Amino acid sequence: MTTTNSSDNLKLPEAWAGKYLLCFTLGVVLIAASGLVFFVGAPSKSDGLRFGMHSYLANFIYAISFGIGAMFFVLVSFLTRAGWSASIRRLAELISMTIPWVACLFAPILLVVAFSKGSALYEWNFANVEDIKESIVQAKVGYLNGPFFVTRAVICLGIWSLIVAYYYRLSRKQDETGDVGLTLDRQKWSAVLMMIFALTVSMAAFDWIMSIDADWFSTIFGVYLFSASMFGFFALMIVSFMLLQRNGKLKDEVNIEHYHDMGKFLFGFTMFWSYIAFSQFLLYWYGNIPEETAWFRVRINDGWQYLSYGLIIVHFAIPFLGLLSRHVRRHRTGLFFFACWALVVHWLDMTFLVMPNAGPFSMGMMFGHLLGGIGMFSLFIGFLLLRASDAPLVATGDPRLHEALSYANPLL
């Protein structure tokens, strides 16, 4: 079994250990305050409900996207038999293990879809097909209906929870036994589970986000959510490791070479997200078919155009130019800044995907949405701290750990 220098070095800082209760309290209070802003500040109760539901969904997608990115990173690490990531993979496993708990936060959406027959969030969610105005949407009710929607959501969330729990359980067991066979077991299943991951993430993206505007569709919408999730995940990894090291943890287990690689991934998914977003827009702009451009038309009118055009600057140009230099990716302060920047613009991106369908831009409504976003992120951090409170922050029994501890990037 490969070991690191100190077991205390691999634990959460004492000051962090009990903070999950504070995170839960803050999260609940802010989400409640967000709901109050929507229902008090909106012109009508129906407007408040519509804005509130859209905001809650966008913030939920933001929170669970980190777990989605972490799950992929764990799977691809075993699929490629990566050695460099052995010392940072445990944090990814812990982030992925927030999925079962964050999934519970989707319950309000599922309850509304199952028992409230109206279009506060999804335009197809009516008791009678005749109540749906668009004929295109009427043709999709065999797929887009309350019971089937809830069933698919439970299946996706259940599959993700089983995947992350299986990998985490074997990882913790390997800490105790050092059994190499546990690594081989996870490698064996990684390819199959990767395909299941791709299918379920696409299904979730289509159902939860794209079907808000059910007469519009994009075949790469699942890839959009995947790229955004990976962008946010690597930003969270960088910020988390740097904060841990500033508190005296993981001093030798995570070095500048790991930060360099995580910075390269953050830069890479900046480019990949930009490519997917632009490709999706370009095809519909070139086709210029009114039914297909409606999704973008909503996002470049009524005040939302500032967010849409702004994403080109804050989500692509600034991170691209900032992370392009090798020096920045190996500079702790510079990399930390751009990782924090990425966490913010990732939230703006999830807002862009959902909120314009709620109605015209409003500063009051965006204030409520921001409160809900901070609250949801606080709940996510609470789940992460609770999960990490009883686990070492490095997979000490991993047979490839020695590769990670001595890892160095080529000089070229």
Secondary-structure blueprint of this entry?
Layout (H helix, E strand, L loop, with lengths): L13 H4 L2 H22 L3 H35 L9 H8 L2 H6 L2 H9 L19 H4 L7 H32 L2 H30 L11 H26 L9 H32 L2 H10 L5 H19 L2 H4 L2 H23 L8 H26 L12 H5 L7
Helix pairs in contact: 2-3, 2-16, 3-4, 3-9, 3-10, 3-15, 3-16, 4-8, 6-8, 8-9, 9-10, 10-11, 10-15, 11-13, 13-15
If you had to describe this structure to a student in words, what would you say it looks like?
This protein is an all-alpha fold. It contains 17 helices and no strands. It has one domain. Helix 6 packs antiparallel against helix 8. The protein is globular, with a radius of gyration of 22 Å. The mean pLDDT is 93.
Brief sketch in words of this structure:
The chain is an all-alpha fold and 412 residues long. It has helices at 14-17, 20-41, 45-79, 89-96, 99-104, 107-115, 135-138, 146-177, 180-209, 221-246, 256-287, 290-299, 305-323, 326-329, 332-354, 363-388, 401-405.
Mean pLDDT: 93
Roughly what fraction of the amino acids lie in strands?
under 5%
| Helical residues, percent | over 70%
Total DSSP helices: 17
DSSP E strands, number: 0
Provide the succession of SSEs. Answer: HHHHHHHHHHHHHHHHH
State the low-pLDDT regions, or none. Answer: none
Number of domains: 1
Largest β sheet strand count, sense and barrel closure? none
Question: What gap, in angstroms, lies between the N and C termini?
Answer: 33 Å
Shape: globular
Radius of gyration: 22 Å
Structural class comes to mainly alpha
